Each structure stands twice: as structure tokens, then as C-alpha cells.
Amino acid sequence: MSFLLALIFSLSSNLDNFVIGLTYGVKNERIPLVSNAIIAFITALVTYASMLGGQLVTQLIPHKVSNELGSVIFYFNGHMVYLC
User: Fold this and answer.
1) Residues in contact with 31: Cβ distance below 8 Å, sequence separation at least 6, in sequence order
2) Which of 20, 24, 29, 79 yields a CA-CA distance of 20 to 30 A from 60?
3) What string of H, E and C letters represents the secondary structure of the chain?
4) What spatial distance separates the first Cα and last Cα of the chain, rounded to whole Å?
5) CA-closest candidate to residue 73, choices 57, 49, 56
6) Calpha distance 13→61 (Å, rounded)
7) How far is CA 69 from CA 24, 31, 61, 78, in A?
């Protein structure tokens, strides 16, 4: 079950990258390799920092509370997109 959740999370977090890549591909515009590498590095760094922060939070907050808090954050994050 956790693998399925990780897969769904990774797909949802990278959907915007897919759409941007598709848009650039349709326009036949290329992102330079150096720019793409910088974007990938920053994304990896922020993801790693988030993972470390998540481990810290799970040590401080009970598992059930952290799951419910994560669900609330995802819910409001999805609804904030529609408000903007």
C-alpha cells in the first residue's frame, strides 16, 4: 500500500513538470542542458530537505496525527490551486 501511495504522490507532484515539458515540446523549444541540470538539482535538494523534515516531524508527532495533518495539507493544497 505504501508503494502505491508513493507512486501516486510522485505522479501528482510531477504532473506540472510533464505539462510544461509537453508545452515546450509542442512549441519545439528546448531547455538548455545547464538550466535543466540546475532545475533538477534544486528540485532534488528541496525534496531531500522535505524528507528530512518529514522524518523529524514523525519523531515529534504521533503517526496518526501526522497522517491526518498530511491529508489536510493535501486537501487544501489541491483546493488552493482552483482558487488562484
Assistant:
1) 24, 39
2) 79
3) CHHHHHHHHHHHHHHHHHHHHHHHHHCCCCCCHHHHHHHHHHHHHHHHHHHHHHHHHHHHCCHHHHHHHHHHHHHHHHHHHHHC
4) 33
5) 57
6) 24
7) 36, 37, 10, 14
Q: Could you tell me the three cell numbers for 66?
A: 501526522
Chain segment 15-74, per-residue pLDDT in tens: 777 788 888 889 988 888 888 888 888 888 888 898 888 888 778 888 888 788 888 888
Cell of 79: 483546493
